[in-house]
Amino acid sequence: MNIFRLCGDLSHLLAILLLLFKIWKTRSCAGISGKTQLLFTIVYTARYLDLFTSFVSVYNSVMKIVFLTASYGTLYLMFYKFKPTYDHNHDSFRILYLIVPALVLSFIIVHVYTVMEILWTFSIYLEAVAIMPQLFMVSRTGEAETITSHYLFALGSYRALYILNWIYRYYTEDFLDWITIMAGIVQTILYCDFFYLYITKVLKGKRLSLP
Amino acid sequence: EGHYIFKDEL
Question: What is the three-class DSSP state of A144?
């Protein structure tokens, strides 16, 4: 554990809790992509199956359980409790265009051919692009609520901090995992436009709206 | 088993 990794995890946790807080407080999931939330739930489910097979640390297991619970909770709020507020007309990104290539790639570029390993690799690839329906939704509606912007910023920062963590681990442990690194870089690049808008608008107290 | 090293991450 290093400071970048810890900040990355906390940023990720903050993002997930911010989203739940926003939905619960406003009693609405307007502006949130249910498809992105569904993809993240698939990501966590595929990746954290190792909860049953390997133990790393209490911290590790607790965080995995929190991420899983929160993502299923978010789906419950979006597709059941506050379903009437879900803006599905603007959430029109075709997620099979993300799931199928991620699945195919996880059979092609993978360390070891076992079910757990392929599921883990699939989760890494899918996570890299899972935010696309949400970003597509923001671009279609042309705006995002401030709290949604904070959510996206925290979620994007998490993988950027992980990149610093991987650089640090390369120097201290002399090890690189190219699958996570390349996927992490793609994931972070997808947020760049948003980061720019966040810094130039939201941090100056303005609402995030596209020109 | 070197590539398992990063699987302590979330």
Answer: strand
Count interface pairs A-B at CB distance under 8 A.
29
Tell me, yes or no, if B1 comes closer than 8 A to chain A by beta carbon: no
Q: pLDDT tens, A40-52? A: 999 999 999 999 9
Q: Identify the three-state secondary structure at position A209.
A: strand
Best residue of A177, A178, A179 to probe chain B, by most B CBs closer than 10 Å: A177
Q: What residues does A143 pair with on adjacent strands?
A: A209
pLDDT, position B1: 43
Tell me if residue A191 falls in helix, strand or coil: helix
A111 — contact with chain B (CB < 8 Å)? yes
- The rounded distance, in Å, linking the Cα atoms of A92 and A101 is 18
Inter-chain CB proximity A9 and B5 less than 8 Å: no
Supply the ipTM of this predicted assembly.
0.81
